[in-house]
Specification:
By secondary structure, the chain is of the alpha/beta class. The protein folds into two domains: 301 residues, Alpha-Beta Barrel (TIM Barrel); 108 residues, Fumarate Reductase Iron-sulfur Protein, Chain B, domain 2, CATH 1.10.1060. Helices cover 46% and strands 14% of the residues. The longest helix is centred in the middle third of the chain and has 21 residues. It starts with a strand and ends with a helix.
């Protein structure tokens, strides 16, 4: 298994994501423990040693099931990562009680890697709000040895990522002045030691992945990758795209192309795969037995394929459209979201759009056409915003999903022995 140095440890470049575990009868909260155990066995035997879960995964059951599976092995034989769900909409945030619950659910006395879950346009205010003291609490847990490395995941735009990196740097400066011995426990000059982002060859441009990785490289912050296959969408490409890839290098699967593209990124330390079967574990482990990054010519072909998968509008984010908009809608953001949903209308789209101020959303477009008249690309902006509005109307609201998660967590907590 390919390994690399990650914050002082030798960590396998393929990580085991516990968001899409095998379940019983299609019930996401009923994890097939026997199937999971077989997958964990195969992964560990192949050299995978980084396992990633989170509080809300599988209705709160992911931490429990993964903890049970890993408990069959010596604690020093694996690295366990979990996350604090400050991204969920709630009336209040209590990191201390939830962290204690997570340790108990996982059956461990520490997390090797612990993340603030999904810093994005709405949750950044939660994570930086001194009222909740979230960052300060987890700094103390690192000092106490119950977190080895503190980081964050991010589905936000580059400017949000940059703002949170600045926040982490400021907190480190404050810590260095107040408690130099605690500051010395952190790698670099930021209380955030690593960042997990969605990255794949499609999102390199579709979700500004290139800009995000550049920000993290400038901050000397190592990267963990999530969604390398875009939730499986890049594992099964259309025939035309597969024929193009086959002509460039015969015999490779779509999955292999995706992983080999990421293997060429030096700052990427772990590539998480949300595996659902033993077959997926075995296939992925085989692809990480040796380093085989793409050649420059192969990467050019793959970028051509990425462009051909897009089915949106040719917005260049020049922002000529924003000044004449009477509603002050961030039209480039809306068009980027429109392009994203053309490929895959995932829940993150609804989450991000719910963070936009009311009155400045796609649904608030009055169809005056001033934006289209200013657009150098001739985009029919009102039509795109109407289409986006119709899609969002069919999707669950992020606040509603958060409420359901909270109810499931409360039910699970009440059912467990005290």
């Amino acid at each position: 298994m390919l390994e690399n140095a990650f914050l002082g440890d030798q960590v396998g470049r393929l990580g085991f994501g516990a968001m899409r575990l095998p379940v019983v009868d299609g019930d996401a909260s009923r994890i097939d423990q026997a199937a999971l155990d077989a997958m964990v066995d195969a992964a560990l035997n192949a050299g995978v040693n980084y396992f990633d879960t989170a509080y809300p995964y599988h209705g709160g059951m992911s931490e429990i099931a993964l903890g049970r599976s890993l408990a069959r092995y010596p604690r020093e034989s694996f690295f366990l990562a979990s996350k604090y769900p400050g991204h969920q909409v709630a009336d209040a945030y209590d990191p201390a009680s939830l962290f204690e619950e997570q340790l108990q659910k996982c059956g461990v006395d520490r997390f090797d890697f612990y993340l603030l879950h999904n810093v994005y346009e709405a949750s950044i205010d939660v994570y930086t709000d001194e009222r909740w003291g979230i960052a300060d609490y987890f700094v103390e847990q690192k000092k106490a040895g119950r977190i080895r490395h503190l980081g964050f995941s991010c589905h936000g735009r580059p400017e949000t990522l940059a703002a949170f990196l600045d926040f982490g740097a400021r907190k480190y400066t404050e810590l260095e002045e107040r408690s130099p011995e605690t500051a010395a426990l952190f790698a670099g000059s930021n209380i955030m030691e690593f960042c997990q982002i969605q990255l794949n060859y499609l999102d390199q441009t579709l979700q500004d992945g290139a800009a995000k990785t550049a920000l993290l490289e400038d901050a000397s912050m190592p990267v963990v990758v999530m969604e390398p296959l875009r939730g499986g969408k890049l594992a099964n490409l259309p025939d035309a795209q597969m024929q193009q890839l086959e002509a460039a290098a015969a015999g490779r699967s779509a999955v292999e192309w995706s992983f080999r593209w990421l293997q060429g990124a030096e700052n990427v330390k772990v590539i998480l795969s949300g595996m659902s079967s033993l077959e997926q574990v075995e296939e992925n482990c085989q692809l990480f037995q040796a380093s085989a990054p793409l050649t420059e010519a192969e990467e050019e072909v793959l970028m051509d394929v990425a462009e051909s998968l897009k089915d949106g509008v040719p917005c260049t984010a020049c922002r000529y459209c924003t000044d004449p908009c009477p509603q002050q809608i961030d039209i480039p953001l809306m068009l980027a979201t429109y392009n994203d949903k053309q490929f895959d209308a995932s829940f993150t789209i609804s989450m991000q759009m719910d963070a936009v101020p009311e009155g400045q959303r796609a649904e608030d477009c009055i169809g005056c056409g001033a934006c289209s008249r200013a657009c150098p690309q001739g985009i029919d902006v009102p039509a795109a915003l109407a289409d986006l509005t119709a899609t969002l109307a069919k999707m669950p609201k992020w606040a509603d999903l958060c409420r359901q998660r909270a109810e499931a967590a409360a039910k699970l907590q009440a059912s467990r022995p005290s």
